[in-house]
Amino acid sequence: MEHPVLVAILILLVIGLVLEALWFISTLQSIAGGAPFIPLSRQRAREAWAAASLQPNEIIYELGCGDARHLIYACRQYLVTGVGIDISWWPLLWAWLRVSLGGMKKRVRLVWGNIHRINLSGADVVYVYLGQKLTDALRDKFRRELKAGSRIISAQFPLTDWRPVQTIGDVHHPIYIYLI
Ligand SMILES: C[S@@+](CC[C@H](N)C(=O)[O-])C[C@H]1O[C@@H](n2cnc3c(N)ncnc32)[C@H](O)[C@@H]1O
Fold first, then answer.
1. For residue 37, how far is its CA from the centre of ligand 1 (angstroms)?
2. Domain carrying residue 148
3. Which of 14, 35, 81, 104 is the most buried (most CB within 10 A)?
4. pLDDT (tens digit, 9 = 90+) per residue, 38-91?
5. 34 located within any domain
6. Segment 124-175, tens digit of pLDDT
């Protein structure tokens, strides 16, 4: 009787260790990409979407979408179409589960890859919550690829030297909205 219990415990331990290792590798991917996976609070994300005045059928891109919780909310709430991209497959796996189980496959497309490699010309709105360095590194890409009239939402980190059309939140938790 003891033996099978020990085997079961060992199997569980090994599974736990493998999952831990996979999570660790995935976190390294995020950090190497420029920003670890730390989700914005639900309330701030909702304020950000509201401030961007999303219109039905607009196309929104979330660069570094993590588990896509905010993207899925926006697509459902505002009837927009979303594209989420993330370099780290662990949160993206959760994103895929959320999209599939939530019946959002028609509205949300997920891409596993580097932000720098995705073309943004189809976007009406781009949302980012990244570090300062990575946010600034995207300025040229935004200038090159985004169409006139598109909006950029940047949580916490401004686009250095760019003037936001609106800033919401408090001094410690700002969200910047830019217009191209
Ligand atoms: C601070 S989290 C933001 C998560 C989510 N957007 C939110 O607002 O809650 C940053 C995310 O960006 C992803 N990331 C970092 N560098 C990236 C890169 N170069 N390309 C794609 N995703 C990247 C990370 O894996 C992480 O999920």
1. 6
2. 42-179
3. 35
4. 899 999 999 999 999 999 999 999 999 999 999 999 999 999 999 999 999 889
5. no
6. 999 999 999 999 999 999 999 999 999 999 999 999 999 999 999 999 999 9
Describe the chain by its helix, strand, coil percentages, rounded to 5.
45, 20, 35
> Domain total for the chain?
1
Q: Given CA atoms 92, 42, 109, 105 in this order, what sign does their dihedral have?
A: positive
Assigned domain for 73 exists: yes
Q: Is 39 in the pocket of ligand 1 (CB under 6 A)?
A: yes
**pTM for this one?**
0.90
Nearest Cα neighbor of 61 from 127, 116, 7, 6 is 127
Name the closest-CA residue to atom 7, ligand 1: 39
Assigned domain for 132 exists: yes
Say how far apart CA 153 and CA 138 lie, in whole Å.
13
Residue 31 domain-assigned (yes or no): no
